[in-house]
Amino acid sequence: MTGTGYDVIVVGSGAAGGFAAKELTEQGLSVLVIEAGRTLSDSDIKPPANKSSGDNVQLFPRIRATLSGQHIQSRVAFFSETLKHLFVNDRQHGYTTPKDAPFLWIRGRQAGGRLHAFGRVLFRWSDYDFKGADRGDGGVDWPLSYADLAPWYDRVETFLGIHGTRDGIETAPDGVMAQPTPLTPEERSFRNAVEARWPNRHVVPWRFNPHNGGPMPSSLKAAMATGRLTIRPDAVAREVLTDPASGRATGVCYVERQTGKVCVSHAKAVVVCASPIESVRLLLNSRSRLHPDGLGNSSGTLGHYFMDQCPSLMFGRWPASSREGEDAPLPVHTLFGTTGGLYIPRYENACGAHDPAFTRGYTFQGAIGRHASPRGADVPVTIMGFGEMLPYRTNAITLDPRRRDRWGVPLPHIRCVPHANERAMLRKQIRDCADMIETRGGHVDFWASPLGLGEGDAGLYPDKPFPIRWFIRKMFPKSMTMGAAIHESGGARMGNDPATSVLNPFCQSWDVPNLFITDASSFPTGGALGTTLTVMAISMRACHHLAEELRAGRL
C-alpha cells in the first residue's frame, strides 16, 4: 500500500465532483480527485468522420452494443454509435435488482462522468421542490430553501454560461443567462397552442450548457488551473477509511483498475460524490467497529429512500402548416448534433392547480422541427415526461451478499418501484402529453413508460419492415422502466434530525464530521426537473462550508 496526504479527497469527477474540486481548490486547499474511469482525449468527444448519425431508432447499433456487453446501456433513449464509448460495459459493471422490478442504471466511467453524454439541460428547482411537504403536497421538506441555494445557482450559471431565457415561472425560477436560445417555428406554434388552451402551462426553450468542446469538463479545468488539484484516474474506490478510536474519516482505499494494486491516500476530509448508487455502495462497504452498518449510518437510513423520476416517452407528428416565425440557428452538441428544444416546467399540484389522484408533479422536455423531415410532411414530435417519485423507505440500495465486482466491491442491489401515487401520476402525465400534441391538429403515434407501451394514430414506426416493428415493440418498453430518466437521487439524505437522516443541511455526515456526500444521494426528494444544476450548486455550497470548517479547525 502507498500513502499520500491531501487536504481533501473527492471521490468522483462528474457534476458534483467537478464543482467540489473547483470550490475546494479555489479556497486554497490541496485536492485529490479519485476517478474510477479513464481520462478522455480529444478524439473521444468528436464523432468519427466515417460514422453517420443514422436514424433515430439506432436499432442495429443497439444490437451490436448489446452483443458486445452493453445490454443495459444500449437501452438509453439517446444511445447511438457515436456515444457508446461514453457508457460502461455492463458485463464488467454489474448490479442486481428484484426479478419483478427492473432498473436501468446508465453510467459513464470516465473523467467527467456522465457530463459528456447528458442532455445538458439545467433548470433551477423552486420551493415547490424543496418545501413541497410544507405546501401540503406530500413527501418531506428539505432542510434548506430556494433562498439558501439561489446564490449558488447564480455562481454555477455564471461560471458555465447557461443559454436560455428568463420566463417568470414560479416553478422554474429565472437564472443568470448568458444568451437566449430559440424555439423552432413549430415549437413556437406548439407553445402558443398549449398556452392558449391551458394558461397554467408554460412552454419555454431549454436552459442548457453548451459543450466546451474538450475532453475535460469546465469545472475540472478551473480546478486544475489553480495548481492544487491532482486527478487519479482508473482508481476504483473500495472503502472510506476511518480512525478506529474517533471514527473520523482518514482517507480512501482504492484499487488501480488496470493492475489490481491496492492503494491508500490520506486526507483531512473526504467528499463522496460518485453518483447516488455508487456513493451509497461505497459508504455501505465502509464498515468498521464504530460504523458496523456502513459509514455514517447510525440513523439506519443509509441506502433507503432511493428515487428516480418516472419516465414516459411519446412520439407523434405536428402539422407542417403550423409554423410561427422564422427559422433561427439551432445549437449543436459535439456528439448529439442539433440539440435544444422545448421545456414545460411543473404545473400540476402547483400554482393553484391540484389533482386529488396523486401528489407532486411532472415536467416535459422535447423537440419539434429540429431535424430534417420531408417537405410538406408532418413534423416529428418527441416529448419525454419526468414525474416526481415520492421517497419510500422500501426503495433502497443494498449490497448484494453473494456477488462482487472484479475489484472486490460487493455489487449494488437496486430496488426502485413506483407505488400507486406514481402510477396515477404517470397516467395523467401521459394523457397531458397526448392532449398537448393533439391540440391544433397534432397526432400521437406511440408512447412508453413503466406502465407499458401504447400505440395511437400511425402506431410504432409504420415505415419500418414488419420484423423490425415486431422487435422494437418487444424491446421498446424495456427502455422506459425506472432508471430511464437518469435522474436518480436519494439514499443518503439530508435532514434536520440525525435520527432520520444521514447528512445535515450542508451535506455533512452527522456521525463523521469530516465526511461530506454532495451528489444527488443527498436529496430528500427527487423533484421533477433535472437534477444536475441542483447537484452542482449543492456541491459548491457544501464544499465552501467544508473549507470554512477546516480553516476554523473544526474538522
From TrEMBL:
Top-level lineage group: Bacteria
Tagged with keyword Chaperone: no
Ranges of residues in domain FAD-dependent oxidoreductase 2 FAD-binding: 7-275
Keywords: FAD, Flavoprotein, Oxidoreductase
Domain Glucose-methanol-choline oxidoreductase C-terminal: 391-538
GO molecular function, one term: oxidoreductase activity, acting on CH-OH group of donors
Classification via InterPro entries: FAD-dep_OxRdtase_2_FAD-bd, FAD/NAD-bd_sf, GMC_OxRtase_C, P2Ox-like
SUPFAM superfamilies: FAD-linked reductases, C-terminal domain (SSF54373), FAD/NAD(P)-binding domain (SSF51905)
Cofactor dependency: FAD
Protein family: Belongs to the GMC oxidoreductase family.
Protein's recorded name: Oxidoreductase
Organism, as annotated: Komagataeibacter intermedius AF2
Taxonomic lineage from the root: Bacteria, Pseudomonadati, Pseudomonadota, Alphaproteobacteria, Acetobacterales
